[in-house]
Amino acid sequence: MPSLRLDGRRIDVRDGDTIAAAAYRAGIRTFSRSLKAHRRRGLYCGTGDCANCLVTVDGLPGERACVTPARDGMKVDRETGWPSTDRDLLAINDRLHRLMPVGFYYKVFARPRWLWPIAERVIRRATGTGTLPLKAPARRMATRFVRVRTLVIGGGVAGLAAAATAAADGSVLVAEERELGARITDPAARETIARLAAEARAAGAEVLEGHTAIGIYEGPATAVLGRDELVEVEAERVIVATGAVEAHGVFPGNDLPGVWLGRGAAVMAAIHGVPIGDRVVIVANTDEGQHLADAIRAGGSDVALVAGRVLEARGSREVSSVSVLTPEGRRAFACDALVLSLGWAPRDTLLRMTAEPEVVGAGDVTSPGRSLADAEASGRAAGRGDPVEPADAGPWPVAEQDGYVCVCEDVSMHDLEHAWSEGWTSSEILKRYTTATMGPCQGALCSRHLAEHARAKGAAPAARGRTTARPPVRAPRLGDLTGAVHEQVERRTALHERHVAAGARIDHSGVWLRPGTYGDVDGEIRAVRERVSVMDVSTLGKFLVAGREARMLLDRVFPLDVGSIAPGRARYLLALDEAGYVMDDGLLAALGDDTFYLTSTSGGADRMEAWLRNWTDRLELHAHVLNQTAQLGAINVAGPHARDLLATLSEDDLSRAAIPYPGHAEITVAGVPCRAIAVGFVGELSYELHHPRGRSIELWDALLDAGAAWDIRPHGLDALDVLRLEKSHVYLAQDTMPDDHPAKLGLDWAVATHKDEFVGKRALERMNALPLERRLVGLRFDGPPQRGYPLAADGVIVGRITSCTVSSAAGGPVGLGWLRAIDGTFPSVLRAGDVTATVSPTPFYDPEGVRLRG
Amino acid sequence: MAELRDRALGVIVCAADASALDRLVPAGHGARMLRVAPDEIMAVVDAAFTQDVRRELADRVAALDGDALVLDVSDGWAAIAITGEDADRTFSYLSALDPPEDDGFAQGDVARVAAKVLRVPGGLAILVPAYWREHVRARAVDDAGTTEARG
């Protein structure tokens, strides 16, 4: 016979069993211990609403045993109690409960402060459920998007009737937590569900069984969680038909194992064939009592059906007797199971999550206790879009004595009274102070009690409502919620596989994957400074700006004098925002009188495109902006032999006259058409070869092959960081701050202040009229510096190091850093930890720029 | 089960005055003319006809707007086809976009990156900037359960 292991014990499993059914048949009565008092918890609702039967299944905690199918070989562990759930030494807490009234934690551990961290550790070890499987591989949930006319949540009579009717008016999706009709004990109800399901499917409705709607959001958009997928449903209307959960009665002993809600008990007896006890007392104030009695009797139990109010249940390990106030007076019954059918709490959390008129209820969720015919009529009315019926929550067993209101959080009626007397006089703040409704069941059983308590105490209408409903309705796993959200979307250049094959360490550089180093940073630097090297710079933002007003656009947007850039020439480009702050930088090349090629930083490309398109529209200029970042690859060939290398692969004129610095030309290299742009970021003779992305590999390979004559090697970001720093070129964001204007960065030379207009001009004029309070400076150090270190003058911190390196080309440790003026003067000698820093002219390497001009 | 394969498509961008594009006669060779913005058309065509369509569009639009820009940008796009009976359902694991009808196209997020989606024989073609090719392929296999087509 198939079997599972519960806490190591072998338990037989029969066809159709849930974990709870198999365990209960094997004699298990205590399924968990309560959160704080460690009281025994047995099966109670049997419908997945309460948290009494949470177990760990095959290492995953928080599974509801009462609705989780049992499988052969399953490993099930109860989650609470020490050393075991059956023998829990922490049950001493129950004896001390009166010493730990509600609000205990807030008060007792407030002083002395040192006590709280200790108490917190003890409390955390003593409470909670389950253990997170931190070493288990993360599960990645697939997300599916569905757009339908009507989403029906709930596959009961009302839900299926709504689906069958609504399907005449467009697409319908039904989300049902379990298998349709799987846990219905009433034969007439099962027959009705089968009939309506067939009708709905025939009408075209799609039914997702095993899918739970966990939240309704603005839109309305609904998150529906299946076993293997998270479905995001956008529906024009949502019909919530989630039914009702049976009322939770409050009386002394109401949480003892052996106390059941009616429908769960009937399922255990009639569907699983497991008698819930030998002598069962059913206290029923609804019209379901006789049906429950028949179902439970069929399971083999001796049943007494009583109408009245439960005064008390008694027992130690489980219930052994019950006192009921009947119309005939107080009566006591010996029993080993007590079944309650006292009323209903609409399962309306989803309905209360939103005020959107497109979300309506149908069936028991609006008026519990309907007949089958009434439920079907309600569903059909909702499916047709009839006006929403007024809700009627129906009878409710108002708590008149002590007992547990919230079984998840061990909050009793006494606790509510205590909190009320302390001044927490509304349902919302009662919730926060007592934590009632904040447990795993999210108030399914107790939220109505809280509201009723506030009402009975005479609270104003605004203070006695149901507490706010928020997602999720059911507790999902964290992995379920991630559903494709956690991933980092990565961009790869066409040369990615070449870098990997060359043994490069691949780094995340913003949204791009880029080589950090090929294994020898110093060797890469030497290749650039002494011979020749290549770097994949395809990540640069690349834009074609063309049209009869393209020059006007660029001149109006950027602070450089675009009118003075002749075709064939290029210029360093600063992009300022309206506040005059530096947004991005790059290069602007004039391809013709009205055609320009613009590069931006790798991370700034998307913003640059939006920026240019926005200004084109705002200024109503005739110019086209085409983002070519994805279309074009770019390889920087840098080093004293850069021109020599290109000469071996190109027949074009590569002289300084043909490609001046800064300038560009269209050339062919190794048969690949390239836009060669003479640049100077690394401070050597350099040509960026912009070319069709599809030919990047061909070009890269040809350059490396031909470059072997100069012992070429590629360089990565680590080398680039040193090379650019030796030339004191800034990295935006690393060396800059969001409110930097060009003068603070020493880049005011890149601003054509004589122009009438450019974005940020007026702001710059105002800022330039003020004394400079902070600026980026070059620094030389007498020892190895550390990035981020504060810079101090006379013991006062006046700045910090933003970039630094130890550079042989620059003659020692150098860096960049922020410096604040003191009384209008910038200090020149500073301390950075144990190191002395001296403000130094920049660039540190080849200040005349002879080398980059070749 | 849906299949995933790269698809060789040519992509030509035609940027011009909106009024000129309104009057532009579509290119031949089965080119799909996607109006991605008021002043921009993206023509998608079997890769073999890319240059024919580029020339055709350049000639036609020049007559309507002398300042128009027509460029072959095929290198910037990766086209990934999802084919098979489950293509639409598979696509719904990647995007909240409605799969386009026969002649239409959709643009928006697919696997969380900007994309254009076309109906092609047997399924859907997803066009994304080339630097996202591997990302979208990985998501289509891992999340949507497609299989890489052989051959």
Describe the 3D structure.
The complex is a heterodimer of chains A (854) and B (151). Helices cover 23% and strands 28% of the residues of chain A. In chain A, β30 and β31 form a beta hairpin. Chain A starts with a strand and ends in a 14-residue tail after the last strand. Chain A is an alpha+beta fold. The model of chain A has no long low-confidence stretch (mean pLDDT 93). Chain A folds into seven domains: 3-109, 2Fe-2S iron-sulphur cluster binding domain, sarcosine oxidase, alpha subunit, N-terminal domain (Ubiquitin-like (UB roll)), CATH 3.10.20; 142-244 and 346-384, 3-Layer(bba) Sandwich (FAD/NAD(P)-binding domain), CATH 3.50.50; 250-341, 3-Layer(bba) Sandwich (FAD/NAD(P)-binding domain), CATH 3.50.50; 404-479, no CATH class; 496-538 and 631-715, Probable tRNA modification gtpase trme, domain 1 (Gyrase A, domain 2, 2-Layer Sandwich), CATH 3.30.1360.120; 541-627, Alpha-Beta Plaits; 759-853, Aminomethyltransferase beta-barrel domains (Elongation Factor Tu (Ef-tu), domain 3, Beta Barrel), CATH 2.40.30. In chain A, α5 runs parallel beside α10 (372-384) and α16 crosses α21 (717-726). Chain B has 151 residues and is an alpha+beta fold. Chain B has two domains: 9-75, Alpha-Beta Plaits (2-Layer Sandwich); 76-144, 2-Layer Sandwich (Gyrase A, domain 2). Chain B is 23% helix and 38% strand. Chain B is built from four helices and ten strands, in the order ββαββαββαβββαβ. In chain B, strands 7-8-9-6-1-10 form a six-stranded mixed β-sheet. Chain B has a four-stranded antiparallel β-sheet with strand order 3-4-2-5, covered by helices on one side. The longest helix of chain B is centred in the middle third of the chain and has 13 residues, at 50-62. Chain B is elongated and about 50 Å long. The two termini of chain B are 17 Å apart. The chains are: A alpha+beta (854), B alpha+beta (151). Chains A and B meet through β8 and β13 of A and α4 of B.
